[in-house]
Amino acid sequence: MFILLIFIFLIIIIAIVIIFIHQKKYLTTEIFTDHFPYESFVLTNFPKEEFDNLHNFNPSIFFYNDQLYKVYRVSNTSCPHPKKKKLSSIQNKIYIEFPNKNIIQIDYPREKRFKNCAEPFEDPRAIILNQRLLLICNNPNEKNCKNKMHILFMNIDNDFIYAPHKSSLKPIKILPLHYPSTLHKIQKNWTPFVSDEKLYFIYKINPQIILECDLMTGYCTKISEIFHKNIPKNLRGGTSAILIDNQYYISMAHTKSFDIQHNFVYFTYFYKFNKHFPFSITNISKPYFIEHPQDIKIFHPIIQFASGIEQDHHDNIYIAYGVNDCYSKMLVIHKHVLSLLF
Predict the structure, then answer these.
(1) Which end of the chain is more exposed for a tag (fewer CB within 10 A), N or C?
(2) pTM for the full predicted model
(3) Residue 153 class from Cβ within 10 Å (0-12 exposed, 13-18 middle, 19+ buried)?
(4) Domain-located, residue 314
(5) What is the 3-state secondary structure (H, E, C) of 112-126?
(6) What is the domain-level CATH number for residue 193?
């Protein structure tokens, strides 16, 4: 009996230590908005009568003619995140919000090739290249429900500019991307960036794998791989990358942890990389929570997923992010803040 009591006591002590370690990590992580000046916006909440049981999150953003456009993933995933839904019941749509606040659906085939998987597409990242809008998305409706990256090509022409008067917009092309990875898990958070009018991707951050993809065939080739000693190996992509002052690129990434009840906890990083091949990462920030989580408690998810970054001509940086897979927010900071992060 005495041995049993000792055993139970040790189990309790171990559990308390584990909880303390998790709690300490959350409570000691710095809050980005506590340290730097910013403006904050809750992005469009879609009307309930039109979007019953759907919510918009993980937004991307882009500027065209000095006006800000927003791209949303709209889904019926569980909100808040902890409740799990069957993949087969998940609907996904993509909408663009125009500067006049009109919201237009991207009209692409949503038929499911694999009945047990979610609908295409998820988490669009927006890039402007050669007068085309490229929406880089992952498609969960593939064999074994594994994600595969696709590009939705949109012409930026009069049809696009006057789209607010339409009900939907059709891509001119949908291109699946092919990269025969030998890694254990297929990466779904590719980081797109443009250099010398060519599209590249950071497929993985450490080792830093750079891909160049043929935009006719979709086949991607690894052109560089660099291991960085002082960068976490478990970093995942988030936003696209933008060129700052024609000197270096900035992007945002995250690590994903779990508490002892398997709730997600995301930690956000900023990182810089060279503008010239092989685009090597030069600096990385400490981890942050973007804003004060509603609950910094054990057994609660903390999901702040930075999914869009842009800059305007007034030295403002726009950061769009999803919160707990429920809604979309945006911060605006001045460019000088970037120099304080590293």
Answers:
(1) N
(2) 0.88
(3) middle
(4) yes
(5) CCCCCCCCCCEEEEE
(6) 2.115.10
